[in-house]
Design brief:
The complex is a heterodimer of chains A (320) and B (287). Chain A has 320 residues and is an all-alpha fold. Chain A has 16 helices and two strands. Chain A has a domain of 178 residues: Orthogonal Bundle (MetI-like fold). In chain A, a hairpin with a 7-residue loop joins strand 1 and strand 2. By secondary structure, chain B is an all-alpha fold. Chain B has two domains: 52 residues; 222 residues, MetI-like (MetI-like fold), CATH 1.10.3720. The chains are: A mainly alpha (320), B mainly alpha (287). The interface between A and B is large, with 104 and 103 residues.
């Protein structure tokens, strides 16, 4: 197939070199013809087999009393009705949005620090590396470490008692009021270095004269930050927001599983943890399937809202 | 005139002061990133009595007993080998297919490739826990649970949407139309061109994808806890380390030792991963 195409190609080229040759030849050469499909085939096959078909299959099975290996009977929307009438489920959806409250912090903290490190800091590269440490470490294992640090008689509490702040010492991870904020801070800790890295390299591409001009106009640190730095790296900021939102919906399993097992009660559980519990621990595959569908719909909704907000903001920018 | 003469000096002065202030802030921020790891090392390597006296205090003793114990109790040596094998498979699967896929989208700009690229990239946002359920069911029915290579392939595919997109973004900047054209005009087929220019040009991106796939597979708990749960011989480091917490015969220091052992190997790819993210994200978003 490959051989014949190239052969006729070459012959055709020789025959009528005078006419409309250059452009089609250029396009054909760049695209590589049908043979090039072999390059993309592995990606398509793997993603379709492992990601997309299972996703469709789970949507299909969410309308069954799904018993893998046994008899599965269709039960209409029973799984969904069960789900929506459970207060536990709504609690976890609520948790999910509570965690989203951390988004401004997760974005603004690395933004300010990367701007601060941009100049006049000796060894800024070293600091960026230190902040980046958590990025290469297993969330599950790091969560193990923090579980020890935050335990009732752990070092953080003994340090607080040591400096006479006894009233602040508490069992951070088994107290309903503190567990979610603590996890938000741990997510900040884990992602901070990556954020600083991304914003720093985006900032280094911003022309220096923009900042110099602003400085001559007497614009201060915050003025430079809000009016020059942030707008010039808006793409990187949006990208980082998307990554953080995705990770709060998709990649919280390790943290929750190790830190709290969703507890106390279900007050720190995320959707991915809940779904894992449903099918691995309790064997409710149908419910897990319905929950997965709801999770996917939630992600699509949040992505839609995000896209809409970005478009509105951009529109306002363009109008102004 | 005199005002102009004064102001540079004053600016110099305030610059100097801000330098120290900024550095002090940078140091303060570094504290929460260093102290937990110091605590981990100290807890894992001090004697039990010393630890009980003051868990968060300065260590006054040194022992490798906990590390040796944890190594034996949780079979960490085997877990390390398992994890490395799984990561190797994941890296091979992800890097080779990402390379070809990323190059394809670089050279092919037909009308359908844009949407196809977005769709395949959107695979990143499909919840792993959702697609993992059918995958687990199939793997279990085939009798492959507890197979480290299957877990490796699954981990590799989970990094794939990110991987090929990353390679494509990189090649879009580094590989010009002229170079591709020149390579193919010599009569080289698309595969020869891929081999001769595509792969060499994509090397930095591929090392990045390798580093990130390694980090993610090495740190993975969800795939391991689903596909490998049933077979303790196939446990990976994170799974072995987190399972220790449920055992009564292993104290906190043993857990700390296991955690320490599990964290160290990823430091090897630390520098590569950092450089990778820098060039992949920063550059990509600014073009």
């Amino acid at each position: 197939m490959t051989a014949t195409t190239t052969a006729t190609d070459r012959r055709g080229r020789g025959d009528r070199s005078g006419e409309r040759r250059p452009r089609p030849r250029f396009r054909g050469g760049l695209g590589g013809g049908p043979a090039a499909m072999l390059l993309i085939l592995p990606v398509i096959v793997l993603e379709v087999l492992v990601l997309f078909i299972p996703l469709l299959y789970i949507a299909y099975r969410s309308f069954f009393d799904w018993q893998p290996g046994g008899e599965s009977t269709p039960n209409g929307v029973d799984n969904y009705i069960d789900l929506f009438t459970q207060s536990e489920f709504w609690q976890v959806v609520g948790n999910q949005f509570f965690y989203l409250l951390g988004l401004p912090v997760w974005v603004i903290a690395p933004l300010i620090v990367s701007f601060m490190l941009r100049e006049k800091v000796a060894g800024s590269g070293f600091f960026r590396s230190v902040y980046f440490l958590p990025a290469v470490m297993s969330p599950a294992v790091v969560a193990l470490l923090f579980r020890a640090l935050l335990s009732a008689d752990g070092p953080i509490n003994s340090m607080l008692r040591g400096v006479g702040l006894d009233f602040l010492a508490k069992s951070w991870l088994s107290d309903e009021t503190t567990v979610k904020p603590v996890i938000i801070i741990l997510v900040l800790w884990a992602g901070f270095g990556t954020g600083v890295l991304i914003f720093s390299s985006a900032l280094s591409a911003v022309p220096k004269h923009l900042f110099e001009a602003a400085r001559l106009d007497g614009v201060g640190f915050w003025g430079e930050f809000w009016h020059i730095a942030v707008p010039s790296i808006r793409n990187a900021v949006v990208l980082w927001m998307i990554f953080q939102v995705i990770s709060i919906f998709l990649f919280m399993f390790s943290w929750v599983y190790v830190l709290t097992r969703g507890g106390p009660g279900l007050s720190s559980a995320t959707m991915d943890f809940l779904i894992y519990q449903q099918f691995m621990k309790f064997g409710f595959y149908g419910t897990a399937a319905a929950q997965s569908v709801v999770l996917v719909l939630l992600i699509i909704t949040v992505a839609g809202i995000g896209g809409l907000v970005t478009r509105l903001l951009n529109g306002k920018k363009a109008a102004a | 005139m005199s005002g102009v003469a004064v102001s540079p000096a004053r600016r110099q002065n305030s610059t100097g002061r801000r330098l120290t202030l900024r550095t002090v802030i940078a140091v303060l921020i570094a504290v929460p990133f260093i102290v937990p790891f110091l605590f981990l090392i100290a807890t894992a390597t001090r004697e039990h009595g010393d630890y009980l006296d003051s868990p968060g205090g300065w260590p006054r003793s040194f022992t490798l007993d906990h590390i040796v114990d944890a190594w034996q109790q949780a079979d960490l040596g085997r877990a390390l080998v398992n994890t490395l094998l799984m990561c190797l498979v994941a890296c091979l699967v992800c890097a080779s297919t990402s390379l070809a896929g990323g190059y394809f989208f670089r050279i092919n700009q037909a009308r359908w490739t844009g949407p196809a690229r977005m769709l395949l990239g959107a695979g990143y946002a499909i919840p792993m826990v959702a697609w993992l359920i059918p995958v687990f069911v199939i793997v279990a029915q085939a009798g492959w649970t507890g197979n480290i290579y299957v877990a490796g392939v699954v981990n590799g595919v989970s990094s794939l949407p990110f991987g090929f997109f990353f390679v494509h973004t990189f090649l879009k900047q580094s590989l010009t139309d002229e170079v591709i054209e020149a390579a193919t005009l010599d009569g080289a087929g698309v595969f020869r061109a891929f081999w001769n220019i595509g792969i060499p040009m994509a090397l930095p991106a591929i090392s990045a994808v390798l580093a990130l796939t390694f980090v993610w597979s090495f740190g993975d708990l969800l795939v391991a806890a689903t596909l490998l749960q049933s077979n303790t011989d196939a446990y990976t480091l994170p799974l072995a380390a987190t399972t220790l917490t449920t055992r009564e015969d292993v104290n906190l220091q043993g857990q700390a030792a296991a955690a320490l052992v599990s964290l160290l190997p990823t430091l090897v790819v630390f520098a590569v991963a950092q450089k990778a993210l820098k060039q992949g994200f920063g550059g990509g978003s600014e073009k």
